[in-house]
């Protein structure tokens, strides 16, 4: 299943947030959305997930989600949203409970996503016993459990310290390399975008419009911290964003 955004525009009251945004999210790719604060990245993600409907334009799905997908469009948020009284395994089971799966299938899904996120030995732990990075791995495992056609990630690493973020970036690359998934990934962090994005969409400041789409033509597994090609892409992105980011900051102060 691919996602298509066609000429999307939206205002909240008198504030125009997005204008004439068109994009496609092809199956099996990670598309990163970057842009200055307040340019409408999270809003666009909510439109993609069907949580809100834009004033103008539309979001289309092309093709069917995989037959075994329990929730075709699944979010991963910055703040994990785990239930503190449930174990790691219990948090994952929660999203399967409404789906009338047999016991064996539920067990197989839970075991599979725990293994894919390297959490098998922590299945009985409570969230308070886990580091921030592990909590986010649980949130990713929970998202994978419903076999989404597209994962919608809203700054999933931004609450984590830089070492943990590096480790999780490696985890996401390993996950994708073993079994490619489709994702839209909102981030402020250009280093993250060049490590994970097959394509990086740069939005202008509010009202957000597509300013540029940068393709990174290097296999995810070959991308490493400090790679000169990635650093050149990062600089290209920053050159596109710098003036807009400064102007957006001034505008937000004036809001
Ligand atoms: N439900 C809402 N009602 C009113 N205004 C909203 C609503 N949601 C978002 N906005 C406004 O729309 C603009 C875009 O918000 P959004 O969160 O999509 O931007 P963003 O690019 O994700 O920002 P950031 O990078 O700072 O997280 C902001 O000015 C925000 O205050």
Give a structural overview.
There is one protein chain. This protein is of the alpha/beta class and 255 residues long. The chain folds into two domains: 2-65 and 150-254, P-loop containing nucleotide triphosphate hydrolases (Rossmann fold, 3-Layer(aba) Sandwich), CATH 3.40.50.300; 82-148, no CATH class. The chain is built from seven helices and nine strands, in the order βββαββαααβαβαββα. The protein has a six-stranded mixed β-sheet with strand order 5-6-7-3-8-9, with helices on both faces. The chain has a three-stranded antiparallel β-sheet with strand order 2-1-4, covered by helices on one side. The chain is globular, with a radius of gyration of 18 Å. The mean pLDDT is 91. The structure holds adenosine-5'-triphosphate (ATP). Adenosine-5'-triphosphate (ATP) is lined by residues 12, 15, 17, 35, 37-43, 188. Keywords: ATP-binding, Nucleotide-binding, Transport. Belongs to the ABC transporter superfamily. It comes from Siculibacillus lacustris. GO terms for molecular function: ATP binding; ATP hydrolysis activity. This is ABC transporter ATP-binding protein.
């Amino acid at each position: 299943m691919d996602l298509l955004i066609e000429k999307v525009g939206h205002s909240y009251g008198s504030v125009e947030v997005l204008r004439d945004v068109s994009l496609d999210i092809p199956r099996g790719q990670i598309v990163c959305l970057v842009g200055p604060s307040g340019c409408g990245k999270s809003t666009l993600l909510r439109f993609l997930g069907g949580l809100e409907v834009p004033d103008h334009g539309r979001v289309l799905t092309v093709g069917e989600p995989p037959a075994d997908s329990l929730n075709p469009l699944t979010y991963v948020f910055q703040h994990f949203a785990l239930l503190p009284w449930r174990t790691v395994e219990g948090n994952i089971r929660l999203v399967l409970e409404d789906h009338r799966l047999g016991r064996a299938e539920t067990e197989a899904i839970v075991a599979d996503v725990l293994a894919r996120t390297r959490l098998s030995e922590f299945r009985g732990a409570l969230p308070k016993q886990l580091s921030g990075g592990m909590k986010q791995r649980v949130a990713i495992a929970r998202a994978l459990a419903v076999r989404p056609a597209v994962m919608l990630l809203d700054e999933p690493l931004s609450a984590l310290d830089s070492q943990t973020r590096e480790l999780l970036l490696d985890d996401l690359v390993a996950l994708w390399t073993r079994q490619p998934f489709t994702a839209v990934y909102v981030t402020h962090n250009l280093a993250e975008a060049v490590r994970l994005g097959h394509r990086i969409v740069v939005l202008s400041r509010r009202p957000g419009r597509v300013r540029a789409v940068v393709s990174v033509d290097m296999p995810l597994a070959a991308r490493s911290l400090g790679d000169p090609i990635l650093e050149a892409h990062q600089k290209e992105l920053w050159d596109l964003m710098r003036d807009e980011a400064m102007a957006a900051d001034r505008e937000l102060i004036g809001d």
